[in-house]
Structure formats: C-alpha cells, structure tokens
Amino acid sequence: MVIQSVSAVAKIERESEPQRHHVRLELPAIIVLNDKKYTTGDISQGGFSMQANRDVFEAGTQDVKVYFPFQNFAFHLQLKAQPVYHNQTTGTVGFSFPDIDSRQLSLLNLVIKSSLTGELASD
Fold first, then answer.
1. What 3-state DSSP class applies to 112?
2. For residue 103, which phi and psi values (nearest 5 degrees)?
3. pLDDT grade, residue 102 (50/70/90)?
4. How far apart are CA 59 and CA 55, in angstroms?
C-alpha cells in the first residue's frame, strides 16, 4: 500500500506598495521640521503624512521631531524623515523613517498600540 502525503502550505503575500506595509493611525502628532510645526494626517511605524508644500518634499531627507501630546504628558522622538510622495491635488506629503533604530521603533509601536487599545488618549 502506498501512502501519499499531502502538505498544505499557506502562501502569504506581502503588499507591494510600501505605504501599505504598516497600519496607519490617525493619531495626533506634531512634526517639527525646520522650526515649523505641522500636524500629521496619519502615522505608522513606517512613516507619516502631513499637509505641506512641494518645497518640503523637494528638500529631501531631513531631521524631524515627532511630538505626541497626551492628556497628562507629552514626549517626542528625534528621527530622520525621507519624503516618499507629494500629492499636489491634496497638498499632502508622505515621509518614511529610513533610519529608525530598534528603541525608537519600540516606543513608536508602544504609542500606536496603546492608542489603538484606548490606554492612551490624546488631548
């Protein structure tokens, strides 16, 4: 008697567009870029979007501070932000975090997860 074994392997595909690799959260964060403050449209562990002119996009990779204001406290992360897209119709610029280290990523993930579960409430 011949026994054939059949194995089922789950095929997991990753989204091909980089802006869709991470859950985006409409979490109010303040971006300070060249001493000017912007409010994020959304943020994820991969990057953020905000309303800005094309010159912000054309400036290339920049140092930014990402502030998270909450009811009883606030903190910030100092990161590099690389422009990914500029939507001229909506005036939106999208950035990625090209050099985020593991500690910064852990803090950002903690804020995102705590916001999703309701443990942290923004102002």
1. helix
2. -70, -45
3. very high
4. 6
